[in-house]
Amino acid sequence: MTDLISAFILGLMGAGHCIAMCGGLAIASGINSRLSHALLYSFGRISSYALIGFLVGAAGFWLTNSFKPLLYGLKIFSALLLILLALYIGKWSYQITKLEKVSAGLWRWLAPLAQRLIQDNSHFGRFCAGAVWGWLPCGLVYSVLTWAAASANPLKSAAIMFSFGLGTWPALLLSATISRQMHQFLNQKWVRSTLAITLIIFAFYMLITGVMQLFLR
User: How far apart are the C-alpha atoms of 137 and 3, rounded to whole Å?
Assistant: First the structure.
């Protein structure tokens, strides 16, 4: 349960990044003009997060049974990414955004499909558009995804990504005015610093645990 709550908070704290990456698209395409369309678009996006989480969780489960040292290495790597994510939330470093370049090639292939789907005003079209846009390159998503993969449990990994997606909902689902007000609150220095430090502590716990499992097994 702690992991799910933490994932939700990470999604919530990434509001500014979500608005920058997807907010303009949602407004320009008219997705937020109808509540049903906004809900379906967001549910499609979050469904993609959960699907990817399930897949990487299954891979982590396979590693657990085939080559455990590699899984411990993944836990260490995910802890380091969470530290970078905390630095991003605290606005102390933006290195995590460089991860978005990793899947730039995939997105160039998916972008034309996404653009066509975004013009489909049917309910199914809105859901599919959200599902495709869920693959948009995002350092925030990648860092949480690596953490989810380290759970080595497909269902738990999917649940972590789904909870993270729920945390991103307010920023994209609410009206532009409310989203801006929420972003202003989350952007306050004391709020960012408090949550960033909390995340760093959690990440160091994961890091120490991973190192101990790797070298003291």
Answer: 23
CA separation (Å) from 98 to 93, 95, 119, 140?
A: 11, 6, 30, 10
Q: Contacts from 144-147 at CB under 8 Å and sequence distance 24+?
A: 144/7, 144/10, 144/11, 144/85, 145/49, 145/52, 145/53, 145/56, 146/56, 146/74, 146/77, 146/78, 146/81, 147/7, 147/78, 147/81, 147/82, 147/206
pLDDT of residue 32: 55
Residue 90 DSSP one-character state: T
Closest by Cα among 132, 149, 127 to 76: 149
- Which domain covers residue 82, as residue numbers? 2-215
State pLDDT tens for residues 80-125: 888 888 888 788 888 877 776 766 666 677 767 777 777 777 888 8
Judged against a pLDDT cut of 70, whether residue 27 lies above it is answered with: no
CA distances from 206 to 156, 165, 213 (A): 17, 22, 10
pLDDT digits (tens, 9 = 90+) for 98-110: 776 766 666 677 7
**Mean pLDDT estimate for the chain:** 78
CA distance 121 to 139: 29
Query: What are the structure tokens assigned to 106, written together?
Result: 């995939």
| Count of domains observed in the chain | 1
Cβ–Cβ under 8 Å, residues 83 and 175: no
Burial 60-79 (b: 16+ CB within 10 A, else e): bbebeeeeeeebbbbbbbbb
With a pLDDT cut of 90, the percent of the chain lying above it is 11
